[in-house]
Write a structure and sequence with these properties.
Layout (H helix, E strand, L loop, with lengths): L3 H42 L17 H9 L5 H20 L5 H4 L2 H38 L2
Helix pairs in contact: 1-2, 1-5, 2-3, 3-5
Length: 147
Amino acid sequence: MIEQYEIEYAAYHNTLSSVLIDFQFIEESLKMNIASCYEIVLSSLDGLIPFKFDYNDLKKDALGVLIKKFEKYSDDTDLIKELRDLVQYRNGVAHKGWLLTTDEQRNSERLKQLTSELTTTKKRTEVVLRRLIDKAKEVEEKAHKSE
């Protein structure tokens, strides 16, 4: 017979995985946005001075660093604020999300609470991700126009 805490733990595990994937997509979307901006800058310079930045320069950047770079190319202060606010959640989830004590893993009420908190974060990450994808499309269109 499956215990209630096992069901709650599975729900927690699935929600945690989904939130972590969203954060990975957010980081990738930021990289794509910034790299497209680099393409616009390179094209605009028309060889006047060397400009050697590209996507590869962003590969190892953490979320906080990517946000700082992104804000140099974006006037969307609401999106930047939301990204900054999400960093603390990302760090907590990424570094401690899997580290539940045995007591926590078997405590249905605690698991429900943690899953609820993750669900709230998931809603936020989904909104931010959609906004970043829309921004990426806009920037990509501008990048191709400037070629």
